[in-house]
Amino acid sequence: xxxxxxxxxxxxxxxxxxxxxxxxxxxxxxxxxxxxxxxxxxxxxxxxxxxxxxxxxxxxxxxxxxxxxxxxxxxxxxxxxxxxxxxxxxxxxxxxxxxxxxxxxxxxxxxxxxxxxxxxxxxxxxxxxxxxxxxxxxxxxxxxxxxxxxxxxxxxxxxxxxxxxxxxxxxxxxxxxxxxxxxxxxxxxxxxxxxxxxxxxxxxxxxxxxxxxxxxxxxxxxxxxxxxxxxxxxxxxxxxxxxxxxxxxxxxxxxxxxxxxxxxxxxxxxxxxxxxxxxxxxxxxxxx
Length: 288
What we know:
Layout: H1 2-32, E1 35-43, E2 48-56, E3 70-74, H2 83-88, H3 92-99, E4 102-106, H4 124-139, E5 149-153, H5 156-167, E6 174-178, H6 193-197, H7 204-209, E7 225-231, H8 237-249, E8 255-259, H9 265-286
Parallel strand pairs: 3-4, 3-5, 5-6, 6-7, 7-8
Antiparallel strand pairs: 1-2, 2-4
């Protein structure tokens, strides 16, 4: 009976020690894992706070010396800050750790990422390119320069990725578009654009000034790393082809990808992989 009691006590101790070890192991794994959070960033331009999904890679530390490049991911019309992680690419946290980058997914409402000339409550160009950028650089260990920032998005966000990239090369060193509405003028009655710009019939010059297609004069040779992707079955395919040809005519270097596919989540889930490889090569090249 004594031997049984002795063995039982030692067995219990071993089990307790194993449980403690397992807890510590899981805690350390969790503590070192990538983290996902929703942060609210104030906008002075719009006098409100904007929600953003923030993804930090495994091993990130505010106290560490390492600085991380940041990829800004813009959502499409009718979506929000959660859409990239929830609907398009749920594996972004793992990718953040593999690439050693930070992802930030801002809410862009239905803004098309313009500073609206007619709607003071919609100043999202200022928000993303200035206010959010300053917040990220002030609160996180980021590479503070265009060599450490890339921006892209899908649909409305594809327009935003190129709009902000072309107009702010001092902020974003690389930019991209997935199925982007890169010329808005063929779609004057769609997606609340008239709310941001006024009607096309009455404000044609404003529409001309707020389409990506007419921003190429801002792009200097070899200043930006540009990547564009659109499916051949997409209703934006024609305007993307036109943008590609205009970039070629102006001798502006860029990567242009097309493949069978439409304007949907499956296409963007696949296409973003190519763009992230492109951005990783950009970051690695500029970091040397």
